[in-house]
């Protein structure tokens, strides 16, 4: 194992001011934006006048907006490119030793981690001091995962076969080890305030959880869990309760306090595939559990009992539920707008299929897919769920009905809206500042829903731009739209929340 620093051994100081290059980029002017979508897209009430940037190259969907919202890091093979979010002007260009497989910002947005798992190497770059960088080589131990600690000054590397977690300090070059980490989907979890870390462990054919203090990496608590094969752990946003859930072969979720006491155990049923996904509400008052039986169960934080059960049937018959159905519409280009040669945006609108939302009359039946019984990881059950930032809504996706997003009113504990898309849902994410949901379905459109209505917007891009992932800016004023080979920024005018 080797850790090396360039430009001397001094660790860059923490300065809150912006680097000169960053300030210069902000003053320098605008990036050429493509024209906004044509009017008449049904935006009434949503308020997002939208602009789109030119596309930029991308590899492996590795595009990340910095926590402070100033910069955007993107990877193209072995190159790391840092841009100004508002102009997309390149601020820094770094060259790594091999193709980048993972990238992550530090919590203070001063450093960027690039992991190259195939070579067992992590490289760290400084935004304020471009000449400084760090290389961590795990050697023969290999590398399967890497992440920042909440303070942005330590890196946690998980070695091959999950033999150990190595904690590297960038300030002192000291190294700490955590033995027996469990190989599971979500085995490390930090509290939101960054004070504590929970690690799932496997020793002597039993599951354990260890709690560490992040300031000095001292062990706070160590306790065994009543699980057959622990699958994941996640802290409540307030950092008071740790959720631990079992393998999908057994429906079981356990809730532990910070001192390791078992607060409650919840089991909805037995002898069938169990939990597939979970999500805490931002207030920590509710825990949503999605399972393979196509239902979401909501637990309350007082008694940890079920207070609601949300079903996802193939037919919606409740007249109080609004069903928005995406339908294709012919491209409408006014004759006076035609020119030769056509502009890029005009050519895109001429040869792309436009769509809009219609409100369907209930009852409405959705396309239902039965999973293949003899294959592992069946496409069934609740694969995605997320609470809105104000705790008022919960968005879910039932993998048996891949073209629909279900939006539940948490205050009334009832289904409020269903978005029925033409293509399968790839990703959705809430605006971090207001109840506005962005959805992508693997085509060149982005879809927005808010309590005021919903809209389908064609991204005016040349060529085939298939959006498979998206990421909101922390302010909610823009988002990054990612395809397999490119990305672009979508800029929205802020809608005031009344």
From TrEMBL:
> Where does it sit, as one GO cellular component term?
MWP complex
Extent of the signal sequence: none
SUPFAM superfamilies on file:
WD40 repeat-like (SSF50978)
The superkingdom of the source organism is: Eukaryota
The record's listing under Pfam families reads: WD40
Q: What is this protein called?
A: WD repeat containing, antisense to TP73
From which organism does this entry originate? Anas platyrhynchos platyrhynchos (Northern mallard)
């Amino acid at each position: 194992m080797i850790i090396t620093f360039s430009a001397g051994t001094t660790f860059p100081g923490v300065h809150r001011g912006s680097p000169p290059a960053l300030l210069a980029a902000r003053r320098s002017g605008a990036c050429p934006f493509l024209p906004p979508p044509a009017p008449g897209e049904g935006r009434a009430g949503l308020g997002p006048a939208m602009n789109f940037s030119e596309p930029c190259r991308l590899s492996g969907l590795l595009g990340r907006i910095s926590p402070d919202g100033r910069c955007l890091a993107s990877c193209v093979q072995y190159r790391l490119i840092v841009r100004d979010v508002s102009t997309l002007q390149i601020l820094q260009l770094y060259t790594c030793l091999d193709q980048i497989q993972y990238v992550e910002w530090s919590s203070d947005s001063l450093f960027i981690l690039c992991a190259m798992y195939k070579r067992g190497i992590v490289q760290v770059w400084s935004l304020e001091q471009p000449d400084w960088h760090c290389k961590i080589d795990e050697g023969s131990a290999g590398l399967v995962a890497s992440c920042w600690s909440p303070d942005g000054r330590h890196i946690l590397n998980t070695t091959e076969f999950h033999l150990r977690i190595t904690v590297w300090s960038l300030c002192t070059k000291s190294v700490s080890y955590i033995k027996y980490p469990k190989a599971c989907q979500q085995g490390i979890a930090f509290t939101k305030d960054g004070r504590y870390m929970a690690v799932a462990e496997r020793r002597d054919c039993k599951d354990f959880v260890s709690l560490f203090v992040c300031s000095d990496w001292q062990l706070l608590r160590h306790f065994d869990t009543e699980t057959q094969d622990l699958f994941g752990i996640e802290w409540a946003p307030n950092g008071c309760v740790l959720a631990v859930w079992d393998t999908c072969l057994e429906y079981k979720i356990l809730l532990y306090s910070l001192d390791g006491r078992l607060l409650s155990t919840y089991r909805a049923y037995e002898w069938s595939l169990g939990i597939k996904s979970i999500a805490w509400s931002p207030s920590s008052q509710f825990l949503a559990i999605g399972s393979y039986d196509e239902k979401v169960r909501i637990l309350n934080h007082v008694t940890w009992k079920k207070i609601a059960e949300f079903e996802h049937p193939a037919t919606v018959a409740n007249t109080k539920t609004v069903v928005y159905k995406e339908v294709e519409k012919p491209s409408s280009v006014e004759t006076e707008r035609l020119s030769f040669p056509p502009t890029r945006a005009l050519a895109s609108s001429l040869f792309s299929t436009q769509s809009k939302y219609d409100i369907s009359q209930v009852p409405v039946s959705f396309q239902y897919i039965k999973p293949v019984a003899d294959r592992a990881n069946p496409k069934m059950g609740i694969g995605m769920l997320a609470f809105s930032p104000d705790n008022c809504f919960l968005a879910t996706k039932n993998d048996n009905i891949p073209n629909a997003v279900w939006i539940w009113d948490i205050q009334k504990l009832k289904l409020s809206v269903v978005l029925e898309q033409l293509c399968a849902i790839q990703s959705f994410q809430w605006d971090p500042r207001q109840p506005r949901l962005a959805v992508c379905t693997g085509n060149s459109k982005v879809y927005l829903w808010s309590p005021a209505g919903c809209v389908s917007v064609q991204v005016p891009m040349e060529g085939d731009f298939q959006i498979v992932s998206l990421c909101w800016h922390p302010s909610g004023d823009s988002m990054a739209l990612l395809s397999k080979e490119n990305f672009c920024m979508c800029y929205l005018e802020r809608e005031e929340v009344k």
